[in-house]
Amino acid sequence: MSLCLYAAISATIRPPPMPAVTYELLRADRASGARLGRVHTPHGQFDTPAFMPVGTQGTIKGVLPDHVAATGSQCILANTYHLMLRPGEKVVADLGDLHRFMAWPGPILTDSGGFQVFSLADLNKITDDGVTFKSHIDGSVVHLTPARSMQVQNDLGADIIMAFDECPPADAPLDYHMTAVERTLRWARLCIDAHARPDRQALFGIVQGGTDQRLRERCAEQLIRMDLPGYAIGGLAVGEGFDSMRIVLGFVTPLLPADKPRYLMGVGYPRDLVAAVREGVDMFDCVLPTRNGRNAYAFTARGAVRLRNAKYQRDTGPIEDGCDCYACRHFTRGAIRHYFFAGEMLGPVLVSVHNIRFYQRFMADIRRAIAGGVFDDFCRSDPRCSLGPTEEGSGFRVQGSGNATASPPEP
Amino acid sequence: MSLCLYAAISATIRPPPMPAVTYELLRADRASGARLGRVHTPHGQFDTPAFMPVGTQGTIKGVLPDHVAATGSQCILANTYHLMLRPGEKVVADLGDLHRFMAWPGPILTDSGGFQVFSLADLNKITDDGVTFKSHIDGSVVHLTPARSMQVQNDLGADIIMAFDECPPADAPLDYHMTAVERTLRWARLCIDAHARPDRQALFGIVQGGTDQRLRERCAEQLIRMDLPGYAIGGLAVGEGFDSMRIVLGFVTPLLPADKPRYLMGVGYPRDLVAAVREGVDMFDCVLPTRNGRNAYAFTARGAVRLRNAKYQRDTGPIEDGCDCYACRHFTRGAIRHYFFAGEMLGPVLVSVHNIRFYQRFMADIRRAIAGGVFDDFCRSDPRCSLGPTEEGSGFRVQGSGNATASPPEP
Predict the structure, then answer these.
(1) Which of A86, A313, A346 is facing B87, going by the closest CB pair?
(2) Who has the most CB within 10 Å: A200, A207, A322, A366?
(3) For A246-262, b where at least 16 C-beta lie within 10 A, e where not — what string?
(4) H or E element at residue B224
(5) Is there a contact between A91 and B313 if contact means CB atoms under 8 Å apart?
(6) Could you tell me what percentage of chain B is helix, strand and coil, using 3-state DSSP and rounding each to the nearest 5?
(7) Is A123 helix (H, G, I), strand (E, B) or coil?
(8) B305-306 vs B297-298, strand pairing mode
(9) Do the bridges between strand A35-41 and strand A44-48 make them parallel or antiparallel, or are there none, so unpaired?
(10) Which pairs count as long-range contacts for B387-394, CB under 8 Å and 24+ apart, including other chains?
(11) With 80 as the cut, is the pLDDT of residue A114 above it?
C-alpha cells in the first residue's frame, strides 16, 4: 500500500474531532433543575454554575490578573465588538492571542459583538446579511456579519465563542421577534460554516425569541439540530422583568441537551443568578460587580453598601464582615471612602475586587449546596438569594458590555 | 522607701528613651562617600540606599500594597498636606493610623506639608509663625505652623516625620535663603518641642540654604546640635541643575553625623540617585516612577520607553527585557499600549509597577555594588547610572508630591 493511499484511508476513518469544550455533569439537583458540573476547555476547566467577570476591552477594569484569579474566577469574558474596533483582532492575534494579551491563561469566552452593535453603536442598517454601523470610537463605518464575527473571534482565540445573533428589545412587536429568530438561525448556520477552529474554540448558539414560548421553542429546537457544543439564552434582562425571565427560562432550559453547558447572557443580580440556576443554567456573565464597584457600590449579603456615604467616614470595619477578599482583609471602609472622594484608582479597584469575590463566593456556595443536596434550602434561607436591583434601577438595558439588569449610577 | 519615692527615683534614673529610628552602618565605600546600611523603625527595617515610592493621598496610585511590596519597596512615603486636607488627619487616626489606612504594615515616612503649601496651594502669607494658604481642594483658608505640622504627623503616625521648613526656589536671592534658613532652624526647634511621640516617630531635620555653602553649613551645624535621629537635605532639584546639586551634596553630607540616616528629598532620576549615593545619601523619594508610569513613560536601562508609540502596537516583548516585575512577566508592550489608548486603568497600573520595580532593582544593585566593594565600577559601567531627564524636561519644579526633576507630560 502506497503511503499516499494509506494517508487517504487513515483520513477517512479518523473519528470526528472532539469538540473544543465539553460539559461534565456531576450532580443534578432533585428538587430543581439545578446542576453541578464542570466545563472542560483547551485552557483548563471551570466549575459550574459559574460566574464570569467581564473584561470588555481586554482587562477586568483596574484588576490585575492575579487578583482576578484570587477572587475565584475561573473563566472570564471579553467583548468582540470593543476589541475588533480597538486594538483590532489582528493586533491581538499578532500579540499571541487573547489569553496572552490579557495575561489570562485560563478559559476565556468572547461574545459575538452583536449585542454591542445593537446597544452601543450608531446603527445604520440591519439586513439578512449582517449589520452596518458607525464605530462609537471614531465614527468609521463597519460591517459585521456572521462570517466576520467568526473571523474576529477566531483571531481573538477565546475557548468559547458566540454565534452572531439579533437581540431585539423586550417590548419589540412579535413579528420583529419572529424575524429576529429566523435571522438568528440563519446566522448560526453561517457561523458554523465560517468557524475555522472548532477543535480549539467551541461555538455556542444563542436562543432568541423574546418572551414568546413558541418562538423560543422553535429557536432552541433548530439550534439543537445544529449539534453545537453549548447553548446560550439571549434576549433576557433586556427589560422583560424578573418574573418573565424566570418563565422563559422555565420553558427554554428543559429543551436544551443535558450534556451541553447552558449560558444565560448578561445576567445579573444574585437573585437572578440563583433563579436561573434553579432552571438549569450553568454559566453567567455580568458587568454589575465591576461597574457598580467602580461607582462605590459594594455587594454584601445584607444588601448594597454605598461607600461614598458619610456614615462610613470613620468606619474601621471591612466592606463586608467575614469576607475574605483582598479589600476586606486589608482596607477599612473609611479608607476606601476616602479613595473615592480623592479620585484614587484604588477605590474602584478595591470595590471591584470585593464585588467579584462576593459573586464568586456566592457561586461557590451555590455549587456546595447542590453538591450537598441542600440547594432548595439554600435558596430559601440564604439572604443573598433575594438580592436584586433597588427600586431605582430595575430592569433597564445596560449600555456597554453585555445585557443585564443594571444598578443606577451613583450620584 | 515609699512606693511613691521609688517611682520618682526610678523616673529620674531611667535612661533616655531609644530614638524611634536608628541607623546601622554596614559598610562604607572606600572610593566614595557611599554607604550601605539599614534603618530600623517601629514598623520594621529597610535597606539603604533606599528608594521610597510616593503615596500622596494614602495610596501608591493604582497599585495594591501586595504589588508595591513585590517591587521590593520597603518604606513608602505619604504627603501630610494632602492627607491633612482630605480626609483629615483625625479621620486617619480614627481609622487606626496611616499604616492601617494604607494597608502598609512596613515603614512609612510623611513630609511636613511645607513643600506642597509652597508649590500647590494658593499661598497667602508666610510669617515667622507659619504659613497661611487656601486649600487647593475647596479654597478654605488653612494655617500651617511647625506645631500644627507635628500634630498632624503625630496623628498620621508614620515612622519618620519631617520638620516643617521653608524651601525657597533655587533662583531666590541670597537674603531670602538666609531668612529661610533662620526660619527653618527656628521652626525645627518648635517642631522638637511640639513632637508628642519621639519614642514611636523619628523627627528628621531638613538642611536648607540653596546653593550657598556658608548657609548650608550653618543650617546643618545648627540642626546637628539638636541631635535629631536623621537629617534630610531639602531645597535641591528645585531648578538648580544637576551639577549644582552634586556640589551642594558634596559639602553638606560630610557635615552630617555618620550614625544617622541622610535623606535627599524629592530626587530624582537614576543619574541623580547614584550621584547622591556617592556623596553619602541613604534615602530618596520621588514621584517620577509613578507619575511617568501613568503617562506611559517606562524607565529601562536603555532609556525611556514611551508606550503610546505606534511602533509598539504589535510588540510582543515585555516593557524591558530581563525585568522580573509583574508587568514584564505577564504583559506585552502591545497590550499595554492598547490599555493606554483604551483609557484602561491597567495601563497606568502596569507601567507604575514596572517603574517602581526598575527603581528598586537599581537600588538593590547599588547596594550590592557597595557591599561588594565595586560601587565605583558600577557607577562607571552601568548604563542606568547616566539616565537623566530628556532634553525637554530637565530641572523644572514638579507641582505636587515632592520636589523632583520631572519628566515632561506625554503628548
Answers:
(1) A313
(2) A207
(3) eebbeebbeebeeebbb
(4) helix B213-225
(5) yes
(6) 40, 15, 40
(7) strand
(8) antiparallel
(9) antiparallel
(10) B387/B269, B387/B270, B387/B271, B387/B299, B387/B301, B387/B303, B388/B242, B388/B269, B388/B270, B388/B271, B388/B272, B389/B269, B390/B304, B394/B241, B394/B242
(11) yes
Determine the Cα–Cα distance for residues A97 and A319; give it in Å rounded to an integer. 36
What does the block give as the cell for A341? 472622594
CA dihedral (A218, A220, A221, A227) positive or negative: positive
As given in the structure block, the three cell numbers for residue B111 are 513630609
Of A59, A102, A344, the CB nearest to B59: A344
Task: Decide: A150 and A191 in contact? Cβ < 8 Å.
Answer: yes
Rounded CA separation B41/B50 (Å): 14
| Pair A119, A234: CB distance under 8 Å | no
A123: pLDDT confidence band, cut at 50, 70 and 90?
confident
pLDDT mean across residues, chain B: 91
Report CB contact under 8 Å: B338, A65.
Answer: no
- Catalytic site residue A111? yes
Q: Which three cell numbers stand for residue A171?
A: 417590548
Q: Which of A169, A165, A229 is nearest to A200 (CA)?
A: A229
Cα B65 from Cα B51, distance rounded (Å): 16
Which DSSP category does B54 fall into? B
Three cell numbers, residue A318: 471591612
Residue of B66, B79, B90, B95 for testing the chain A interface, max A β-carbons within 10 Å: B95
Contact A167, A403 (CB under 8 A): yes
- CB atoms under 10 Å from CB of A162, counted, come to 29
C-alpha span between A86 and A156 (Å, rounded): 12
Q: How far is A406 from chain B (nearest CA, A)?
A: 21
User: Region A373-393: what's the mean pLDDT?
Assistant: 88
Buried/exposed code over B130-143 (b: 16+ C-beta within 10 A; e: otherwise): bbbbebeeeeeebe
Quote the distance between the C-alpha of residue B269 and its chain's center: 13
Among chain B residues, CA nearest to A65: B330
Under 8 Å between Cβ of B46 and B75:
yes
Question: Does position B176 have pLDDT exceeding 70, yes or no?
Answer: yes
CB pair distance less than 8 Å for B102 and A335: yes
Selected for mutation to probe chain B from A95, A340, A356 (highest B CB count within 10 Å) is A95
Burial degree of A292 (CB within 10 A; 0-12, 13-18, 19+): buried
The amino acid at residue A91 is: V
B50 membership: H or E segment, kind and range: strand B50-53
What pLDDT score does B405 carry? 35
Q: Which three cell numbers stand for residue A227?
A: 449539534
ipTM above 0.85, yes or no: yes
* pTM for the predicted model, two decimal places: 0.93
Q: Which stretches of A183-268 are assigned E, i.e. beta strand? A: 202-207, 230-233, 262-264
Distance from first CA to last CA of chain B, Å, rounded? Answer: 78
Q: Any CB–CB contact under 8 A between A62 and chain B?
A: yes
Closest listed residue to residue B45, CA positions, set B74, B68, B88: B74
Per-residue pLDDT band for B14 (boundaries 50, 70, 90) equals low
The DSSP output letter for B267 is -
ω before B49 within 30° of 0 (cis)?
A: yes
Q: Coil, strand, or helix at residue A329? A: helix
pLDDT at A393 over 80: no
Q: What is the pLDDT of residues A192-222, one digit of tens each?
A: 999 999 999 999 999 999 999 999 999 999 9
* pLDDT at residue A144, as a whole number: 95
Distance CA A202, CA A407 (A): 32
Q: How many CA atoms lie within 13 A of B153 on its CB side?
A: 38
- Tell whether A341 is within 8 A of chain B (Cβ): yes
